[in-house]
Write a structure and sequence with these properties.
Length: about 210
């Protein structure tokens, strides 16, 4: 009887573990055979960076991102897509800041990871991690340069539209700020909002 009980428990444990593993799996299907993707801001929207401490913000009408999202099955939701290049604003269309200041920004180094935490009805909810962005602006007081690091919460990707939205994505920090005259300060927390559209929609599912 003891042996039977142990065997049953072992089988139950194996089944539970297998089920947990299955539920944790994510599948990515990318129409681009090389696993690449590119995205731009949704028409009529802006990308917004807000310094939570000073209440000052930067608004960008142009932004682009590209990277990889390799077709396959993932054991968990970490790194379903990786952004290796990202820009906000251009020389001809810079981001607007306080007091007539203008800014541009770009990914400093590494890759930004898009991670899935939950899935329902074709929508993946998660966050962005490993953010490391440099922002440069022309202000009344000269050139302001700052770095923004951390993560951005409240990210959602919708399969049917190919839209990635970040809504009041908290978790960011102004890591450094040089000559920014109080518009943003090192150590301030920040949040980011934007709505991107992929040039070719990727499909993400779980389990």
């Amino acid at each position: 009887m003891f042996a039977t009980t142990v065997a049953a428990a072992a089988l139950g444990f194996a089944a539970t573990s297998a089920s947990a593993t299955a539920l944790a799996q994510w599948t990515v299907t990318n129409p681009n055979a090389n696993g690449s993707f590119s995205a731009h801001l949704k028409a009529g929207t802006t990308a917004e960076l807000l310094d939570n401490t000073t209440g000052q913000g930067v608004s960008c009408s142009t932004a682009a991102a590209s990277g990889t999202a390799t077709t396959g099955v993932y054991p968990n939701g970490s790194g379903l897509a990786k952004i290796s290049s990202a820009t906000w604003g251009t020389a001809s269309s810079p981001c607007a800041g306080p007091l007539g200041s203008t800014f541009t920004a770009s990914l400093t180094s590494g890759t930004i990871k898009l991670n899935g935490a939950s899935y329902a009805g074709g929508v993946t909810s998660g966050n962005l991690t490993d953010v490391n962005v440099t922002i440069t602006g022309d202000t009344l007081f000269g050139v302001c340069t700052a770095t923004i690091t951390g993560s951005a919460a409240n990210a959602k990707y919708t399969n049917s539209t190919g839209v990635l939205s970040i809504t009041n994505g908290t978790g960011l920090t102004i890591a450094t700020a040089n000559n920014c005259s109080g518009l943003m300060n090192a150590g301030d927390t920040a949040q980011f909002s934007a709505t991107y559209v992929l040039d070719k929609a990727i499909t993400v599912t779980s389990p």
